[in-house]
């Protein structure tokens, strides 16, 4: 069967988007290839055809999701550093981001999975993280401030998602917003 031009690329993009959302919601290690494929409306064979393995899919998800995050962070380059930081922190450290990990950032959702992955996958993550850090450093004007910014917001989201109480989640988010923008 011959597919229309662009069909395979479109299916790959759909698979990356759906697999990224499913993995961020349930964890990559805890989600089987069949479930990741089903989320995209394809067979598990399509996963292997596009990515070679589940690890290959994780690598592609990391790149795709980090590119999406960097695209969000690079919007409105004319904003002042203070305005940019306040807006990004408010968006990131939000109730919506706690409640809907599938539509949020890869880092707080999958960093633990990546930490347990093989070295090549961790290298893909490191390369993407360093690129994000460089882009944020350009915005903030300093390399160390970019690491501090990323560590604070990602760490706060990990902690906020890990606790049960809405009150404690709100305290973590508020304290972290103050630490980053205060």
From TrEMBL:
DNA-binding region in chain numbering: 32-51
Q: Which UniProt keywords apply?
A: DNA-binding, Transcription, Transcription regulation
Q: Which InterPro entries match?
A: Homeodomain-like_sf (IPR009057), HTH_TetR (IPR001647), Tet_transcr_reg_TetR-rel_C_sf (IPR036271)
User: What's one Pfam family here?
Assistant: TetR_N
Q: Which residues form a coiled coil?
A: none
Q: Which organism is it from?
A: Rhizobium aquaticum
Record's protein name: AcrR family transcriptional regulator
Q: Output the superkingdom of the source species.
A: Bacteria
């Amino acid at each position: 069967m011959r597919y229309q031009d662009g069909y395979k690329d479109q299916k790959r993009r759909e698979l990356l988007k759906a697999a990224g959302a499913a993995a961020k919601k349930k964890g990559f290690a805890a989600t089987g290839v069949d479930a990741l494929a089903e989320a995209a409306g394809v067979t598990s064979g399509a996963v292997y055809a596009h990515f070679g393995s589940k690890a290959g899919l994780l690598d592609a998800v990391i790149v795709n999701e980090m590119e999406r995050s960097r695209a969000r962070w690079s919007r409105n380059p004319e904003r002042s550093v203070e305005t940019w930081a306040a807006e990004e922190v408010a968006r990131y450290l939000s109730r919506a981001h706690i409640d809907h990990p599938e539509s949020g950032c890869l880092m707080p959702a999958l960093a633990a999975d990546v930490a347990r992955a093989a070295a090549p996958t961790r290298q893909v993550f490191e390369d993407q993280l360093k690129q994000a850090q460089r882009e944020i450093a350009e915005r903030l004007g300093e390399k160390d401030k970019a690491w501090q910014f990323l560590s604070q917001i990602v760490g706060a989201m990990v902690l906020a998602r890990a606790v049960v109480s809405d009150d404690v989640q709100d305290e973590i988010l508020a304290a972290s917003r103050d630490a980053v923008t205060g």
